[in-house]
Give the backbone structure.
Amino acid sequence: AGDRGRIRRYLRLAGRPASGWPLLRHAYAEALARFRHNVAYLVPAPPHRVSERVAAIVGPAVFTTRSTYGQLAPSRWFADRDFRIIRTPYGGEEGPQPEAVEDPAARWRAHQARVRRCALWDWQIPPTASPRDYFRTLRSGRSVVLMQDVVDLTGQAPVRTFLGLQRSMAVGAVRIARMAGVPLYHLTTRFDGGTAVVDVVGPLPLDEDALLRRMEDEIRADPASWELWQMVLDAEPPAALPSGHSAPPELAAAA
């Protein structure tokens, strides 16, 4: 409500009307998604289900996903399947316990961090790990999951066009799947009432642009579901394109 200019810009990038009733509908839909997302931090086992397509996948694979509200539900499913999640801890996951925090707002953030830490800590691989860890995981029969809508604020990832914006974004899942010889799937999360529903698209072609376009299509279909739009919108465009898109030497050696 206090930053309608940015919201309107985002909706225009998503190809949606950015004023009047459509703007109000978007605000309501995003507020409801945020509320349902936060319920997962308040109940021990938030309601979720996976589609038959998801349940039928066997064997090692690379899964991509994007940062949607309700993402904690598939994260729990990843852990149940003993997948490995390539992610950077955020929001104080390595910080103090909520009981040690006095400010109520900071205590809530610390509580959220503890829930994520308990749900994901034992299954995550930091993005700074050696690529050999990714391939070792796949060769052991486990799958790996990567978030692929995160801007690289260091600008070291290749510059890509995403929703009409030039942003530094890594789409390493495609390269990992190609080099490991495993299928690539894209996971989606939506709400059905208060239940988070996890579904899958794929196997996908091993093409980075195709994966980016897939995520763009999802955002345009439901812009209120995307949690990272402000980060992507506000990120500074890189000053220049990185030269070359070939695999880094350590990734090539790991193959």
In short: The radius of gyration is 18 Å. Strands lie at 48-50, 62-65, 84-86, 124-125, 144-147, 159-162, 165-168, 184-192, 195-201. The longest strand covers residues 184-192.
